[in-house]
């Protein structure tokens, strides 16, 4: 890792310390496991995955990356957390999945393989880096003309603070305390502006909402107040 990498060292250490529990569907990352089918549903509503080359930026332990591979994509997961990548590779091998993982930044990969991917995913990462706009630009550089770019992140408003931090981290204990910093949450208007500046066109937004009574997550086109997914297209050349 170099000093120019767009990364907070404390974030790498925070998630790396929990790497061995990444695939425990009842552990600290149970929420990621619960929402992963919804993320894949959203992606597949906007893009064909079978036979497509897809890079998962900030892949962590590979939950989404494996989902992409199971959907037929030629999946590459990249991350700057070496412990996370080791766990991801071990799990994919045990599952018999042909998934590649690399310890490389989005910016470096974009410089190495511009336009090298049919689609790009970047989920729950933008709020954890110093310069999220740079990640958006790199994702736009990575995708080929006509391809799709997908992000998920957290809206910055009172509702998101109350539900994603106070509720999810402290009251319901759905995710580890300290997972999020409210000041780094991103409004859809901000993400949209960065994407436009990177040459991407918005296709659609959907929220991920949680029902505490049923303990179920669902997609919602009406409610993007907390967690939300965004799909963008890179125009044909």
UniProtKB/TrEMBL annotation:
S-adenosyl-L-methionine binds at residues 39, 58, 79, 123. It holds the Pfam family Methyltransf_23. It comes from the Bacteria. It catalyses: a 3-(all-trans-polyprenyl)benzene-1,2-diol + S-adenosyl-L-methionine = a 2-methoxy-6-(all-trans-polyprenyl)phenol + S-adenosyl-L-homocysteine + H(+); a 3-demethylubiquinol + S-adenosyl-L-methionine = a ubiquinol + S-adenosyl-L-homocysteine + H(+). One of its GO terms (molecular function) is polyprenyldihydroxybenzoate methyltransferase activity. Pathway: Cofactor biosynthesis; ubiquinone biosynthesis. One of its GO terms (biological process) is methylation. Keywords: Methyltransferase, S-adenosyl-L-methionine, Transferase, Ubiquinone, Ubiquinone biosynthesis. Its EC number is 2.1.1.222, 2.1.1.64. Belongs to the methyltransferase superfamily. UbiG/COQ3 family. O-methyltransferase that catalyzes the 2 O-methylation steps in the ubiquinone biosynthetic pathway. This is Ubiquinone biosynthesis O-methyltransferase. It comes from Methylomagnum ishizawai.
